[in-house]
Amino acid sequence: MMQRYIRKILEAQVYDVAIETPLEEARGLSERTGNHVLLKREDEQPVYSFKIRGAYNRMAQLTPEERARGVITASAGNHAQGVANAARFLGVKATIVMPKTTPDVKVTNVRRLGGKAVLHGDAFDDARVYAEKLMEEKGLTYIPPYDDPDVIAGQGTVAMEMLRQHTGKIDAIFVPVGGGGLIAGIAAYVKYLRPETKVIGVESNESACLALAMEKGRRAILPQVGIFADGVAVAQIGKYTWEICKDHVDEVITVSVDEICAAVKDIFDDTRSVTEPAGALAVAGLKKYVAREKCEGKTLIAINSGANVNFDRLRHIAERSELGEKREMLIAARIPERPGAFKEFCKVLGNRNITEFNYRYSDSDSAIVFAGVQIRKNNDGRDELLAELNEALDEVTDLTDNEMAKLHIRYMVGGHKPSSCGDEAIYRFEFPERPGALMKFLNTLGGRWNISMFHYRNHGAAFGRVLVGMEVPKKERAEVRKYLNELGYTWFDETENEAYQLFLG
Asked: Which residues of 45-60 are buried (b: 16+ CB within 10 A; e: fewer)?
């Protein structure tokens, strides 16, 4: 099997539309990690993503009859642009089905390249099912985004270039993983020629389908997929890609949203380019690997896979990057309600910079403070600050890893529920962000239970977030859960969340 893929990679037709991208040293990352870090700049492709390679190589194999009928695909955006660009070059009509949550920059570019963009569903799998339906109805040829030998071979040309560009020892290559087309192509080529080089997959912990397959020893479907890193938001690893990955990928590292955001900033600092979240996965995984292994002097390559990001999303990325870099800590602390207390609190913090400070009068004895504090870039600084605060104050809570605190509480600290409010239940929702989505959510929520609190903030992302408080007697909680399950939105019961209990309960 491996020899067949090597031949297909060597014969792949990609350079009619793709370019050989540079392999650049990341000086800042190299200095900070103590290793030789190289970035494969697939964000510099004509469509700002490696996906153009596999899409064109697959379409170059079409028969004249297939070209005449036209092609169709489903994509969260980058493969869509690759297909549209390849279709324009080959003179083929292309229909691309994209989730409604696809960033506008990707939809616009597909149309600019001459593709017919059809928006359907809230996630990739919804778009794929609809694309397959249209394929049957109209006799179109489906161009898979990752699970196809010719697509895998096209992506494998990335590895062919890297081994030619860097002839010295390579200790590890970090590859972002969605459906697995890129890592399968790279693993096939690298492990055949340099079996000693580690090939390490990196996934968002919201869509870790390869990690799940590795754990179970077989392909499996994730029950839920987060779409912050929309370019890799896939529920199941591909069939063809799994056959390669299960034997030739050394390990899979999963990273958080905060770690991805920090990696976007790292890449910007070294290259002055802005990758999309999926495009920064490899760097995030590389940093996590170095921290875990405490390695130095190694040659490590990370693949910057794409740069198709909505400008509005950068606000959220910037807000979370400091947390992902372990440079900021969020805390809640109880201080006396008297003049000079805040000054004493600041004195405990020493020369650390306060990045955020919120509190609300609670009673005549004490106040709850919500603060963001800059710390040294390691967990020791976090532990050190906690120890100092616990020594000086009666009650301190670390909220740095509390998702509800980071998404909502920091923006809405304003006091506890009034005594007149009945039993309050708190629910956090996520729903696809598109015009009218919030109004639909409000209409669907209905009016059976009184809403006692509501918080919504647009992060410029593909999904919206709402925090809702409702007056619900405890005996009706099971009925509420049944009702919420029928709504069809992703939801979380946050009634017992410590952040809620401290600031709003």
From this structure: bebbbbbbbbbbbbbb
CB 43: neighbour CB atoms within 10 A? 24
Q: CATH class for domain 2-50+149-322?
A: alpha beta
| Alpha helix segments (H runs only) across 178-225 | 181-193, 209-216
- Block means of pLDDT (10 residues each) for the chain, 505 residues, are 92 96 97 97 94 96 95 88 94 93 84 92 84 94 95 98 97 97 98 97 96 97 87 92 97 95 94 94 97 96 91 77 75 74 72 69 68 70 85 86 84 69 84 64 65 64 76 87 82 91 82
| 186: phi then psi, degrees, rounded to nearest 5 | -70, -45
Q: Which residues pair with 332 in a beta bridge?
A: 370, 397
Superfamily of domain covering 424-503? ACT domain (3.30.70.260)
Q: What share of the chain is helix, strand, coil (3-state, %, to 5)?
A: 45, 20, 35
> What residue ranges of the chain are covered by domains with CATH 3.30.70.260?
326-401, 424-503
| Beta carbons of 57 and 13 less than 8 angstroms apart | yes
Task: Determine the Cα–Cα distance for residues 95 and 84; give it in Å rounded to an integer.
Answer: 8
Catalytic residues: 51, 305
Q: Is 347 left (phi over 0), alpha (psi -120 to 50) or beta?
A: alpha
How far apart are the C-alpha atoms of 273 and 305, rounded to whole Å?
12
* Closest CA relative to residue 11, chosen from 145, 181, 154: 154
